[in-house]
Amino acid sequence: MSTNIASANTNKPYDNAYNYSFNTLVGQQPLPLSQFKGKVLLIVNTASKCGFTPQYASLETLYQKYKARGLIILGVPSNDFGSQEPGTEQDIAEFCRINYGVSFPMTAKEVVSGQEAHPFFRWAKQKLGFGSAPKWNFHKYLINRKGELITFYYSTTKPDSSRLVKAVEKALDEQ
């Protein structure tokens, strides 16, 4: 279940990612993005049975390389595209740990596209335009240390691509 710090009576989008919250993959505990204030966030919708699933490995490598400098990667499992994330939260957690050694935070499974999308994904689409909405699994959003949405990357952009890595490094260098 998705949560939004906003009152249920307001449809006004926020200007900052820190106003949004998810639940953790295991235990369904609140995971407010505000707990990552001052960090650079790469938020990625994920799936376990997708042709892009091997990106988990390079996401973990990117996380290990830059987490000490303030990078947080947040995986958001979704079954929106091709029903490629059919498992339970426990299944997803085990798959990620066993197959890819994922240690970065993961949220509970969410809807990431359409009118039922989690509020964060609706906000990102509103901020960056219709073309920025996830079209498939492993779509990525980069957020700076101030909680501002910088850019997005389609699924075909690998986490270790020079374009994405340079943008992460630039965001990490900014205070």
UniProtKB/TrEMBL annotation:
Stored SUPFAM superfamilies: Thioredoxin-like (SSF52833)
Classification via InterPro entries: Glutathione_peroxidase (IPR000889), GPX_AS (IPR029759), Thioredoxin-like_sf (IPR036249)
Active-site residues, Swiss-Prot/TrEMBL: C50
Top-level lineage group: Bacteria
Family per similarity comment: Belongs to the glutathione peroxidase family.
GO biological process: cellular response to oxidative stress
Keywords: Oxidoreductase, Peroxidase
Protein name: Glutathione peroxidase
GO MF annotation terms: peroxidase activity
